[in-house]
Specification:
The chain has about 425 residues and is of the alpha/beta class. The chain is about 45% helix and about 15% strand. It is built from 17 helices and twelve strands. The strands form four sheets. A four-stranded mixed beta sheet has the order 1-4-5-12, sandwiched between helices. It is globular, with a radius of gyration of 22 Å. The protein starts with a helix and ends with a strand.
Length: about 425
């Protein structure tokens, strides 16, 4: 086999065989396939596309380019993946809730990407926590607690790591086939039995339109199912932050609020919906309504909080974090309210602008390797449809300096559209699978 013939097949609109894609993925991982050849392959896939069978074959090849975990926990293991948004801290809440009903969750997560926050960055806002653990420690935490949120081992899906970097500099990131294979190769390498996907649409999402989100959801579900993992997707609104906060420590605070003083909110509602779907997929329950009640009971009964505390301590954080989280989370130097520019209703929020406002405050990365300030961001964000008078707060900003605060306020106000007529936006858009 050789890279040229495989690239030629894709260029001509044909799917390479499973063995050819296995060879190519191994070559990408090892360096036997050059950057130029990997870039040519990515461009050919972008322009010509793959069939559903070809997409499954590529996903499996990228998964098998490195280690694939196997579990012997005596029950199905599950996970959730979000395509990214603002104020999306569902993973931090969902993992301990599932573990509290004896559903194991080996959650391999990522860091912030572009304007969206990363689960690992949020969890590491807790002092002492490190998500960079080896496989042995990962397994030990799973055995003891039933949930662990960790970073991917470098030996998991190494072909994706290199191909993603090449896609980033060859204008081939938007390929639906490559996005699908990239997401799923890493998730399937975790040895999952069931996966729930949260595919976002709206101003704060990578897929802004419902049609684009639906197309990606269908691609992800059919590919994961074809690869042997029970999968479904919820398409959810990201026209505004999910939780009323954006920023690492501020989103952890929202999670702690949900754990220690549970109330109805968009964050809790979506977490319950995703968790209930996942439990039915994996065979733990026969109806989402039944599963949702069990999951909610873990909040009101304190079991989810206990699992979260145990996970935080196992990752190097403080013991009994839920009892002292307010004093332990880092605080920004400048904290102040952002006043409404006029009287009316909040008609729209530009999620991208809010996310980039956090990034420019230091809460995200403009370049690979940038150090993150976990304390900065926005909190107390009023939702679409809220009524407000001129000068009243629409959000609260948390910045490292007065200069950063001024820029952050301008960024937030630029995201805001006021009107005399606005309505709340529904959270759940559709289900696929």
């Amino acid at each position: 086999m050789d890279a040229i013939s495989i690239i030629t097949k894709v260029r001509e609109g044909d799917d390479p065989s499973q063995s050819e894609l296995n060879w190519f993925a191994q070559g990408v991982a090892s360096g036997k396939v050059s950057d130029a050849q990997a870039g040519a392959f990515a461009m050919a896939v972008l322009l010509k596309g793959l069939s559903e069978e070809g997409r499954v074959a590529l996903t499996l090849a990228m998964r098998d380019s490195g280690d694939v975990l196997k579990w012997s926990l005596g029950k199905p293991v599950v996970d959730k993946h979000s395509t990214g948004g603002i104020g999306d801290c569902v993973s931090l809440l969902l993992a301990p809730m599932l573990a509290a009903v004896d559903v194991p969750v080996p959650m391999i997560s990522g860091r912030g990407l572009g304007h969206t926050g990363g689960t690992l960055d949020k969890l590491e806002a807790i002092p002492g926590v490190s998500t960079d653990v080896g496989e042995n420690r990962f397994r030990a935490i799973m055995d003891e607690i039933g949930c662990a949120i960790v970073s991917a081992d470098r030996n998991m899906a190494p072909a994706d790591r290199r191909l993603y970097a090449i896609r980033d500099v060859t204008a081939t990131v938007p390929s639906k086939d490559l996005i699908t294979a990239s997401i799923l190769s890493k998730k399937l390498a975790a040895g999952l039995d069931a996966l729930i996907l949260d595919v976002k649409c709206g101003s704060g999402a990578f897929m802004e339109t419902e049609d684009d989100a639906r197309a990606l959801a269908k691609s992800l579900v059919s590919t994961a199912s074809g690869a042997g993992c029970k999968t479904a997707a919820l398409i959810t609104d990201m026209s505004q932050p999910l939780a009323p906060a954006a920023g690492n420590a501020l989103e952890v605070a929202e999670v702690m609020g949900a754990l220690t003083d549970p109330k109805n909110s968009r964050l809790v509602d979506l977490t319950l919906a995703l968790g209930a779907e996942l439990m039915v997929l994996a065979g733990y329950d026969t109806a989402p309504e039944v599963a949702a009640v069990k999951l909610r009971d873990t909040l009101t009964g304190g079991q989810a909080t206990a699992k979260f505390d145990a996970m935080v301590a196992a990752l190097g954080g403080p013991e009994n974090f839920s009892e002292s989280w307010r004093s332990r989370l880092p605080e920004a130097n400048v904290i102040r309210e952002i006043p409404a520019p006029e009287t009316g209703k909040i008609a729209a929020l530009d999620g991208y602008a809010i996310g980039m406002g956090v990034v420019h405050m230091g809460g995200g990365r403009l370049r690979q390797g940038d150090r993150i300030d976990p304390s900065v961001g926005y909190s107390d964000i009023l939702p679409i449809g809220a009524e407000v008078t001129k000068g009243a707060p629409v959000a609260r900003l948390h910045a490292a300096s007065e200069r950063a605060a001024q820029a952050a306020e301008r960024a937030y106000l630029s995201s805001l559209t006021m009107s005399q007529d606005a309505t709340a936006v529904p959270l759940l858009v559709d289900r696929v699978g």
